[in-house]
From TrEMBL:
It comes from Chroicocephalus maculipennis (Brown-hooded gull). It comes from the Eukaryota. Belongs to the glypican family. It is a lipid-anchor; GPI-anchor. It is found in: Cell membrane. This is GPC5 protein. GO terms for cellular component: cell surface; extracellular region; plasma membrane; side of membrane. The keyword Membrane applies. InterPro entries: Glypican, Glypican_CS. GO terms for biological process: cell migration; positive regulation of canonical Wnt signaling pathway; regulation of protein localization to membrane. Keywords: Cell membrane, Glycoprotein, GPI-anchor, Heparan sulfate, Lipoprotein, Membrane, Proteoglycan, Signal. PROSITE patterns: GLYPICAN. Cell surface proteoglycan.
Length: 368
């Protein structure tokens, strides 16, 4: 009653043993593919971690760098500006990690929060009545009167260019892991598991436990079993090319590091623009939001929480160099994995599975 290891000679196998052999080949195949995938997966996971660590380091530097602008140049609003700055960098981080948000919404939300502070602390420093309604009116008015001129739009454009490549790279790396995991757990068809049993275990039924499959026979069986995996070859090559393109984009004109550190200057230019146009802005705001209560003299800048100046430039340069080196190492490694899916059958038939240095081997039916 054997279904797979049928042979003219007497056999020491039973149908139950054939079933055990089928379970064994399925388990072994998964383990073999996992072993092949391990290095590649380890490299991608390692790069995701290194990329995120270097990125977080740059982000912290850029946030401190931006906060110190308010501490040094705009002390009257430094304490209140801390929260909008923090929110802006949180939004940027979420965007790069793939959240459903845009750079434009993050930047404009920041400038919406910034305008009430610029208006009440710098343009009209005597304002005392900054009620919720008045603050909200200032936020909404910002969108119509554009107090920050072209600088808010310029900041959106610059950041969108550089952050796009980082976001895509982050998503592409996660996709790579997904593809590898899927190939590891691709189910073997019944025909495939029977072919693998015939190749690896049917000789045992004849007492031939030391005979291994012939190389050509192994390749035929593996290619048949892994046809669906090798079909990924073209897409995998395209995927590697896309990774190469994205890492080049990040390192070229859309440099993430330059864009993040440029946020401070963009905000400074925007605030200066608003201050220069203070009288016109005040006239428009008075018409739309009414006149708030005023007090003589400037607002005290006591109890401002000082922003910790980073030992910054050096830390930044190290993070910058680290990110560039990681990109280069990673893409060089990935380029070597271009043929990963095309050559998977050859790699599985390498090593201990087949007979290479022997005159006899198993061809699926007999020893040859």
């Amino acid at each position: 009653d054997l279904q797979i290891c049928q042979h003219r000679a007497p056999t020491c196998c039973t149908k139950k043993m054939e079933e055990s052999y089928q379970a064994a080949v399925r388990r072994e195949r998964t383990q073999s593919i996992q072993a092949l995938n391990f290095e590649l997966k380890y490299m991608i996971v390692g790069h995701i971690t290194a990329f995120q660590e270097a990125f977080e380091s740059l982000l912290r530097f850029a946030e401190n760098h931006t906060s110190s602008l308010f501490e040094t140049a705009y002390r009257p609003m430094a304490k209140e500006a801390a929260e909008p700055v923090k929110e802006l960098f949180t939004d940027i981080s979420l965007y790069i990690l793939g959240a459903e948000t845009t750079v434009e919404s993050a930047v404009l939300r920041f400038f919406d929060s910034l305008f009430p502070l610029v208006y009440s602390r710098l343009i009209n420093p005597g304002i005392t009545d900054l009620s919720e309604d008045y603050t909200e009116c200032l936020r909404l008015t910002r969108q119509d009167i554009n107090p920050f001129g072209r600088y808010s739009k310029n900041m959106v454009t610059e950041l969108s260019k550089s952050l796009w490549a980082s976001r895509m790279l982050s998503q592409a790396l996660s996709l790579g892991i997904e593809v590898i995991n899927t190939t590891e757990h691709a189910a073997l068809t019944k025909e495939c598991s029977k072919a693998l049993v015939r190749m690896q275990y049917c000789p045992h039924c004849q007492g031939l436990t030391l005979i291994r499959p012939c190389v050509g026979y192994c390749l035929n069986v593996m290619r048949g079993c892994l046809a669906s995996v090798s079909e990924l070859d073209t897409q995998w090559r395209e995927y590697i090319s896309t990774l190469e393109y994205l890492t080049n984009e990040m390192a070229a004109s859309h440099d993430l590091e330059i864009a993040l550190t440029g946020i401070r200057n963009s905000i400074n230019e925007a605030i200066l623009h608003a201050q220069l146009n203070g009288p016109q802005l005040s006239a428009t705001v008075d018409k739309v939001c009414g006149q708030p209560k005023q007090q003589e003299g400037n607002l005290s800048s006591d109890n401002i929480v000082p922003v910790k100046e980073a030992t910054e430039t050096r830390t930044f340069m190290m993070a910058h160099a680290s990110l560039n080196n990681k990109r280069r190492e990673f893409i060089n490694y990935m380029k070597r994995s271009r043929t990963f899916h095309a050559s998977i059958a050859e790699r599985l038939c390498d090593g201990d599975l087949v007979m290479r240095d022997s005159s006899t081997c198993w061809n699926g039916e007999d020893v040859v």
